[in-house]
Design brief:
Elements lengths: L8 H14 L6 H12 L3 H14 L8 H40 L1
Helix pairs in contact: 1-2, 1-3, 2-3
């Protein structure tokens, strides 16, 4: 189930673009983020996370890109499902092996 965001993708893109465009007008990137966050109505930390993710996606910062994060989540989900299926098969195998031993004993 996807997490629903309070802010549309257009608002996020515009806010990040504004931060990147207006960095030179402030003492630091954080000051730029605080200024723009107040104008769009989100927290500075939220906007900072959006900016960091865009920087990762563009290769300007180390870390997982959005696509890589999505792929990792899919693979982790698949691993959980496979482990669950293996556990079910292991229990079924033990159950049928015990049933076979009980049948031979009679």
């Amino acid at each position: 189930m996807a997490k629903r965001s309070r802010y549309s993708p257009e608002v996020r893109e515009r806010a990040v673009r504004m931060v990147l465009e207006h960095q030179g007008e402030h003492a630091s990137q954080w000051a730029t983020i605080e200024s723009i966050a107040a104008k769009i109505g989100c927290t500075a930390e939220t906007l900072r996370k959006w900016v960091r993710q865009v920087e990762r996606d563009e290769g300007r910062r180390p870390g997982l890109t959005t696509d890589e994060k999505q792929r990792l989540k899919e693979l982790e989900r698949e691993v959980r499902e496979l482990r669950r299926a293996n556990e079910i098969l292991r229990k079924a195998s033990a159950y049928f092996a015990q049933a076979e031993l009980d049948r031979r004993a009679k």
